[in-house]
Specification:
6-stranded antiparallel beta sheet, single chain, alpha+beta, 4 helices, about 140 residues, about 30% strand
Length: about 140
């Protein structure tokens, strides 16, 4: 899979595919969620859904309503390499690690560490700042 194969589209949140959450990151303006379907032969159909909303303090006092949430869907990917390619479009490792599925914790922390160590990775210095947050979330022995 190369960057040209990535499928992204705007979609209503209700149209996001069903599945289990693998990674969920949060920040002030939204979230990035990786989901997948667990089948009899393993995990498949990995998809990414992002939700973005400008923080109210950025918009000013003259905005009467809550700002609209922009939702984007990317995927599917069938391999872990493909999953990381999808995720890397959204600067995921520099966001707050809210949840990491227990089956993926080792793979996720390895991917975050790779990005922190890769000085050619666009966000490496910021990933390094968030590394302790990811290490904590990926070392948890129980689901939260």
């Amino acid at each position: 899979m190369n960057g040209e194969d990535i499928v992204t589209q705007d979609t209503p949140l209700t149209a996001a595919p069903a599945g289990e959450t693998i990674i969920r990151t949060l920040d002030e303006g939204g979230s990035v969620t990786l989901s997948a379907v667990r089948g009899p032969t393993g995990w498949a159909a990995f998809t990414v859904v992002t939700e973005e909303r400008p923080p109210r303090d950025v918009l000013g006092d003259d905005v009467g309503e809550e700002p609209e949430t922009y939702v984007q869907f990317a995927g599917p990917a069938e391999t872990w390499e493909g999953v990381l390619e999808l995720l890397d479009h959204f600067a995921w490792p520099m966001l707050h690690a809210h949840y990491v599925h227990p089956d993926f914790r080792q793979a996720v922390i390895a991917a975050v560490c790779e990005r922190a160590a890769d000085k050619d990775f666009a966000y490496a210095e910021f990933v390094d700042d968030w590394l302790p947050d990811w290490e904590l979330k990926c070392s948890m022995s129980e689901e939260v």
